[in-house]
From TrEMBL:
It comes from the Bacteria. Keywords: 4Fe-4S, Electron transport, Iron, Iron-sulfur, Membrane, Metal-binding, Transmembrane, Transmembrane helix, Transport. It comes from Magnetospirillum gryphiswaldense. Residues 263-293 form the 4Fe-4S ferredoxin-type domain. GO terms for molecular function: 4 iron, 4 sulfur cluster binding; metal ion binding. This is Iron-sulfur cluster-binding protein. GO terms for cellular component: plasma membrane. NCBIfam families: ccoG_rdxA_fixG.
């Protein structure tokens, strides 16, 4: 005799008590739509992140004539990065290291305070997976309808709906790829070029790669990325302590679980009615009743689902709660919960490290030089002895002007008495030279230094170039190099 199966009761294979399976065998989760505080927070977080992601490149910032007008721009062709009034050059790549450190420490601090709030609300995998799942819901229907739809035989109607869903995923993925691309060029011009097919081939390749991964990971891999691919789930517990806020099931109150009594009498049993709404609403298919698991991303929609059931039976909310272990244990023991404790050794340490790294970066940005110099001694030949007996050395002298205005510098030497300077194509035998550098450019000069032979102490001596900006009282830039001469 074949029993009738209610699709609404279909869930992933549930573990026996005390068992938490590492690999889920029955495919991806099919989450049920719920309403509540945490679901609303996910909507708001997704909306803000997607709006920033796609509209951020269109923010303008006036840097003067002949300068990019995009507020945030990663100009690969020009080898610059712009962040409002800050311009980062390739040799300042160490700022990227600082940003990565800030991001990592911020994640640690966020986790210590509020558990996996990043995974549940802010991660791009979460945002796009949630969007793709809701597209399925809007086109096909709720969880029961989607399960029935997938099990139904192939038909014209099924293919049509599937085409609509996949087509919508493709459009969202293309928008994701285009959104990423717009951060690497002027957004208005690039968007026009993309849709008129005038953009460079590299742009379309980049869009295809980013959009393709969005389509694959958000549409098909989904929670498998969080459970099996993302390393964060593996070491998250190391950042938690007993005061970290995490999603937890209050077993002392919910057990022993059983189907809802017809008379609604919960006197001699737990409040959990084993409806599995918490499992059905979970985007990763976790049964939170078996404790904290690496697959739980901490989004809290199971709390919304459970609270609705508690309201239905007139029971107190919070059977599944977003709280700390200390508070959970206090309620279980019948004591007053101590509440949230954000200031503790772990969070102070993370906040202190964050402040130190951010402070170092800020001081570095505020005090960084707007001029950089590179000196290269010519090696073929190392020196030339002139007819008057003096010794000449040649140097490639590069000046990087990192501001958007033309500047004039004065170059002289220290360390060797009687040294004179000569610039190819300009002044010769001078005690100092005037060197002009155009705005936001690198100027390369070939400099000769002539020194009387009797001044040289031996085969080599130290020579220092001193560069100062004309008309400015800033700190001079000293570049120590070698001056070669004949044996004595």
């Amino acid at each position: 005799m074949n029993a009738t199966i209610d699709p609404d009761q279909i869930t992933e294979r549930q573990p026996t008590k005390g068992e938490v399976p590492f690999y889920r065998e029955n495919g991806q989760a099919v989450p049920r739509g719920v309403k509540g505080l945490f679901r609303n927070l996910k909507w708001w977080a997704s909306g803000i992140l997607l709006a920033w992601w796609h509209l951020g490149p269109f923010l303008r910032w006036d840097r003067g004539p002949d300068a990019p007008g995009q507020a945030i721009l990663l100009d690969m062709a020009g080898r610059r990065a712009y962040f409002f009034d800050i311009e980062i050059w390739p040799q300042e790549i160490y700022y990227v290291t600082g940003l990565l450190l800030i991001a990592a420490i911020s994640l640690f601090l966020m986790s210590a305070l509020a558990g996996r709030v990043w995974c549940g609300f802010l991660c791009w995998q979460t945002v796009y997976t949630d969007l793709f799942q809701n597209i399925e819901r809007w086109v096909i229907g709720e969880r029961t309808a989607r399960i029935t739809f997938e099990r139904a035989p192939t038909s014209v109607g099924k293919l049509a709906k599937k085409s609509v869903v996949v087509g919508a995923w493709a459009l969202v993925s293309a928008a994701c790829g285009i959104g990423v691309t717009l951060w690497f060029g002027d957004a208005f011009q690039m968007l026009k070029d993309i849709f008129t097919l005038e953009a460079p081939t590299a742009a379309y390749v980049f869009i295809s790669i980013i959009g393709g991964f969005c389509f694959l990971l958000g549409g098909f891999a989904r929670e498998r990325v969080c459970v099996y691919m993302c390393p964060y789930s593996r070491f998250q517990a190391a950042m938690f302590d007993e005061h970290s806020l995490i999603v937890s099931y209050e077993a002392w109150r919910g057990e022993p679980r059983a189907p809802a009594p017809k008379d609604r009498n919960f006197a001699d049993r737990g409040h959990c009615v084993d409806c599995k709404m918490c499992v059905q609403s979970c985007p990763t298919g976790v049964d939170i009743r078996f404790g904290n698991q690496l697959a739980c991303i901490g989004c809290g929609v199971c709390i919304d689902a459970c609270d609705q059931i508690m309201d239905k039976f007139g029971l107190p909310r919070g059977l599944i709660s977003y709280d700390s272990q200390v508070n959970l244990e206090a309620r279980e023991a019948g004591r007053k919960a101590p509440g949230i404790k954000p200031i503790r050794a772990r969070t102070v340490l993370y906040a202190g490290l964050l402040a130190i790294v951010a402070g170092i970066m800020l001081v570095s940005l505020l005090t960084r030089s707007t001029t950089e110099v590179n000196v290269l001694h010519e090696r073929a030949p190392l020196y030339v002895q002139l007819s008057d007996g003096s010794v000449r050395n040649g140097y490639a002298y590069k000046i990087l002007n990192m501001v958007r205005e033309d500047r004039t510098y004065v170059l002289k030497t220290e360390g060797l008495a009687g040294a004179t300077l000569e610039v190819v194509g300009g002044k010769a035998d001078a005690a100092e030279l005037e060197l002009k550098v155009e705005k936001d450019q690198v100027a390369t000069y070939r400099i000769f230094v002539n020194v009387p032979e009797n001044v040289l102490p031996g085969r080599s001596a130290d020579l220092t170039f001193v560069l100062t900006e004309q008309g400015k009282s800033g700190k001079p830039i000293r570049s120590k190099t070698l001056f070669a001469g004949p044996d004595k």
